[in-house]
Amino acid sequence: xxxxxxxxxxxxxxxxxxxxxxxxxxxxxxxxxxxxxxxxxxxxxxxxxxxxxxxxxxxxxxxxxxxxxxxxxxxxxxxxxxxxxxxxxxxxxxxxxxxxxxxxxxxxxxxxxxxxxxxxxxxxxxxxxxxxxxxxxxxxxxxxxxxxxxxxxxxxxxxxxxxxxxxxxxxxxxxxxxxxxxxxxxx
Length: 187
Prior knowledge:
This protein has 187 residues and is mainly alpha-helical. The chain has helices at 4-9, 14-25, 32-49, 58-68, 72-84, 91-98, 104-116, 122-131, 136-151, 158-163, 167-186.
């Protein structure tokens, strides 16, 4: 849930992204499934940062994550996401197959699907994620991170941004992170 800045910062260096995401996830996750969930979330954000509406392809997005995933539970859930994207799937089935719980293997796939099934709108993706129930705040935050990386700040409804606690501070941190990133690329 807290890994999005790493996905943004290392979006153009997948080897370093994997290393840093792994190291940072050890602070709060000791189980391999929690660690891999953090890595998949970071990669989802990184992939989303580099996409444009013209280059968006949900199946390619899943293919990239499939190359990252190692654990069988995530591979199966990525397969389920792939099939859900080609058929009309209701939220009950999504929760049954992807999950909506506190464990990373139940929340990360739900967040990824929430974004991929609603790529045209930040608001629709987040509302869908929250409507899945369960650990709705975590799934909503992770969906927001992926969708926000794709849409940028201008894709987030203005009234939502205005209500964000410490919003100006958070936007300032994001700007500083991006300045550091772009400055390091010039060196």
